[in-house]
What does this fold into?
Amino acid sequence: LCQATDARRRRLLEALAPFGLVVYGNWEDRLPSDSPLHPCLRGFLPMDQENDLYARGFLFINIHSVGHVTSPNMRFFNIPALGGLQLTDGPFAAFLQPEGESVFFSSITELVEKTAYFLAHPAEAEEIRQRGHARVQRQWTYPHWLEWVLREMNVQGPAASPQEGGAPLS
It folds into this structure.
């Protein structure tokens, strides 16, 4: 990651360390020795365990790289697709409704406040989680995504078979 992304992620995550945050990835060499993230580090999460984590977890923080200014990363869709609730940055309301299907933040203060709120209000978090899951299943699965991309490009593509959950392109 670029240094700007790395520093931004660190600041955001350090603010959440008191909440019992768990952090996966290669952070050990990039943190100062006094960072509150050290007890949160769990190392790399094997890709074959990612889906299970999203399916059984409660609240996920999705911080986009500085370069993700025009489209969301794949975690943005994978988290709700597998049943997780995400707090995420980025101007991506066209994909998931803010506060209705995903929870958005734009500052450290807002991230901390919303984290505390949803940890204290699990029923409300569950409603958003369910709506986000339903929206991704309805609109943002790979067959739907491909159909959307092809339509945007004005390309006639192969029709997805009914067993794949897709509808023919028109």
Notes: Confidence is low (pLDDT under 50) at residues 160-170. The two ends are 40 Å apart (CA to CA).
